[in-house]
Every structure is written in structure tokens, then in C-alpha cells.
Amino acid sequence: MLFGAEHVQRYLETDGAEGHDWQGTTALVLTTTGRRSGQPRSTPLIYQRDGDSYVVVASYGGAPEHPQWYRNLVAHPTVTVQVREQRFTAHARTATPPERERLWPRLADAWPAYDDYQAKTDRTIPVVILEPTA
């Protein structure tokens, strides 16, 4: 099973032939800019489409704090996304409460553990919308 850095490496090397279809759902690679280091940081994330945008969840397995990649994109919202062989620049933003309410059920259908993660943390798990910029 692909996970973490190995997942990113195989995804990038194969243009998503390995890694896009993952554990019964789909994954993309999100590259953020480190908020302190300024270095690129790539993370494989489960996604769903919403119109022209891509939607991901900053779950961190229901940990009490947000994942690093989410903190990075809050500081630097211009990100790079790879979906299969397609690479593009996007603007990342946290979904508004009404958007989150609309999108959460679809995301939880794609990865049912999201509901478990939300139940075990006091924080509202952010839903992130990745809007292609061109």
C-alpha cells in the first residue's frame, strides 16, 4: 500500500498511474510552500471534484491540531496540484461553513473515516477548495 513520501514519489514518477486510485477512492498530490522553510512540501490527499475545483480535507486523522500542509497553505495559498498527469497552479482556501456543510457528505462518502475523525476531535476539520488559477 502506498503511503506518505512513497505515495508522492510513485504518483509523480508514473503521472498518477500508481497512486491516483487508492484504497477505493482517488488521490491527488498537493504541493504547498513551507510557511517557515519556504521549501516545497508535497502531500497525497483524497479528493473530490466540485465543478472546476478540487476539494480535500485537512483531517490529520482527527488529531487536535491541523496538518502541516494546511498550515502551509493558509500562509501561502498559491499551491500546485497534480491529478494524474495534469499539473496546475491553484488558489487554496478554506470552505465557508455553508460550503463545508454541502461538501462534507460527499467527502465522507469517498472516505467514511472522515466522520470518525471529526467525532474524535474538538476542532472543526477544514474542507479546502483548490481553485485552478489558469
From TrEMBL:
Domain of life where this protein originates: Bacteria
Gene Ontology MF annotations: coenzyme F420 binding; oxidoreductase activity
Gene Ontology terms: cellular component: plasma membrane
Catalytic activity: oxidized coenzyme F420-(gamma-L-Glu)(n) + a quinol + H(+) = reduced coenzyme F420-(gamma-L-Glu)(n) + a quinone
SUPFAM superfamilies for the chain: FMN-binding split barrel (SSF50475)
Pfam families documented for this protein: F420H2_quin_red
Protein family: Belongs to the F420H(2)-dependent quinone reductase family.
PANTHER family found in the cross-reference section: F420H(2)-DEPENDENT QUINONE REDUCTASE RV1261C
NCBIfam families per the UniProt record, alphabetical: hi_GC_TIGR00026
Protein name as catalogued: Deazaflavin-dependent oxidoreductase (Nitroreductase family)
